[in-house]
Amino acid sequence: MKLKLIFLTLFFAIAQLSFAQVSFDAKVSKTRLGVNEDLRVDFVMNADGDNFNPPDFKGFTIYRQPSQSINKYNLYGKKSYAKTITFYLKPTKRGKFRIGQATIEIDGETYKTLPVNVEVTSAVQPEKNRNSDSYVASDDIHLVAEVSKLNPYLNEGVTVVYKLYVSPAVNRITGVSIMDTPDYSNFWSHTVKVPNATRFEQGEYNGQPYNYIIYDKKILYPQKTGKVEIEPLTVSVGVVVPTIRRGVFGSTRVMESVDKTIAAGIRTINVKPLPLKNRPADFSGAVGSFDFQITTNKKELAATESMEAKVLVSGTGNVTLFDLPRLSVPNGLEEYEPEHKEQLRPSQGGMSGNISDAYTLIPQYKGEFSIPPVSFSYFDLKSEAYKTITSQEIVINVNKGPDASSINNTVTTSEVNKQAVTQIGNQFRFIKLNTNLQSIGGTSFFKSTAYWVTLLTPLLAIPLFIFFGKKREERLSDISGNRIRKADKLARKYLSEAKKNLGNQIEFYIAMERALHNYLKAKLHIQTSDMSKDRIQRLLKERDVDDTVSIEFIALLESCEFARYTPSSSSAMQQDYDKASRVISSMDKQL
């Protein structure tokens, strides 16, 4: 009996001490959630306080007014108190985030919660609660990714159309915004501008009549074989829908504006490798249906007169992801670096249009010059076989100008008749040594001011030569500084075309994207068809390039892709140019 009494006494003493201690904690509804899910954060305290300061909730937005609840209860005759402040959050993007410390003052003391780590993943299939207004909204609006082909070849264009289906029961849409954009890590992607993106058309979803808009459109070129996932696009849609609640008389449903986060769902495609059998040696990765030709604007001209030879590939496929064949130019034709041009438009099988390299050629002497045939190979999707197109031989007649022999051979003089020299008079008897020369200016140059300046200037220049020589040696021995200067010069070289087009959005971002590609080709020795984002990051990591620089480089490529189809200001273009210059310079120093 005494033992039981002692136990109860200790129990109540411990309970009293625990109730007397102030606690202030942060609790989350889940520590891992999809970008299309909601998060609830409760700040719980066992005593009332003042000056509550919540954290900044970086990576989230507050989508509902915070609520507060107070519970008072009695336990073994002891009064207890619990107060909860609740925040309702929506993620703004994927990633790992930390909900920081909240603070509150209780009885003159400041208390802080512990930070809570939360991971936001790509969109997931949410649990449906049929008694919520959110479920009503989710049942009336859907985002669908329609894929043109589920079994493509490597580097074959696949079109993904994102359609937003809305039930006629929805009163209206108040807005649509992107929550999470797929990174298309195993694809080379092109964004297609969608005209009339806000105009609804009539269609069907699961056999029911729905209205829909084409919200986004992408052309993807798979860079990896096997099963490849297309990550979901996630958007936030503001809709006015009828809720499960009824009006005062129960005849009509209450309408409510709901912000609903929806995702298109993960799509999986099976990418087939290109066959190795009968693959031509000059195959550079072209996949589609193409024509190939080499043309010249002149076939007869004079020496030192310029002409243009154009290597042209036209058709449909991965037009921007392979290299054009190089023109073979005979000796005697001076060749200049070709001008690359692209005229492209999106189509069902990828990009359609043409790409060309225009060479400027200048003959040095007259004669007949032959531009030999050049072959171009591609994988034809219709016949599922490799095809090779060979151009015709082009003969250039240069009918005016010097002969090749007069340029290449040394000039010999002809024989002349030799005659004896006959001496007449004293013309060769002696050379006169004493002269009576007089100064033309009337004043003597010797010991004049000009004389001393001319004499002493080389002597005074010697210290200057020594000084500048040492500076030059210091500059040459400064390996780090030389790398910086060389990298800056290289960045300016590659970005010169983009700088010329500052203010012209489309031309600027096309030029900058081409500059970034050419830089990678020059530094990493890879073809354009191999430039997937994963491969670029892997190669840069193998070359010990900082992850930060690598991420910024990939972000620039994505920025070029995205900005070509969305409005951009001059200041934004200048910022992208400065960033590209800095990233190329940093990367070149590390490479």
Can you describe this structure?
Helix content is 25%, strand content 38%. The chain is α+β, with helices and mostly antiparallel strands. It folds into four domains: 20-121, Immunoglobulin-like (Sandwich); 133-271, Immunoglobulin-like (Sandwich); 287-405, Immunoglobulin-like (Sandwich); 479-590. β5 and β6 form a beta hairpin. The protein is flat and about 145 Å long. The relative contact order is 0.08.
Overall geometry comes to flat
Question: CA-to-CA gap between the ends?
Answer: 82 Å
Summed up, the domain count is: 4
Individual helix count: 10
Give the biggest sheet.
7 strands, mixed
Architecture per CATH nomenclature, i.e. the level-2 architecture of the largest domain: Sandwich
Question: Which structural class is indicated by helix and strand composition?
Answer: alpha+beta
CATH topology of the largest domain: Immunoglobulin-like
The first-level CATH class name of the largest domain: Mainly Beta
Beta-strand content: 35-45%
- Radius of gyration from CA coordinates: 39 Å
- Low-confidence regions: 129-136, 410-425
User: For the residues shown, what is the average pLDDT?
Assistant: 80
How many distinct beta strands? Answer: 30
Helix content class = 25-40%
What's a quick, concise take on this entry?
The protein is α+β, with helices and mostly antiparallel strands and 591 residues long.
Describe the secondary-structure layout.
Elements: H1 2-20, E1 24-28, E2 32-34, E3 39-45, E4 50-53, E5 60-75, E6 78-91, E7 95-99, E8 103-106, E9 109-112, E10 116-121, H2 133-138, E11 141-147, E12 158-166, E13 172-180, E14 187-191, E15 201-205, E16 208-222, E17 226-230, E18 234-246, E19 253-263, E20 267-271, E21 287-296, E22 300-302, E23 307-317, E24 333-335, E25 339-347, E26 350-363, E27 367-371, E28 375-380, E29 385-390, E30 394-400, H3 404-408, H4 449-477, H5 479-494, H6 496-500, H7 505-524, H8 533-542, H9 547-563, H10 570-590
Parallel strand pairs: 2-10, 21-28, 22-30
Antiparallel strand pairs: 1-3, 3-6, 4-8, 5-6, 7-10, 8-9, 11-12, 12-16, 13-18, 14-16, 15-16, 17-20, 18-19, 21-23, 23-26, 24-26, 25-26, 27-30, 28-29
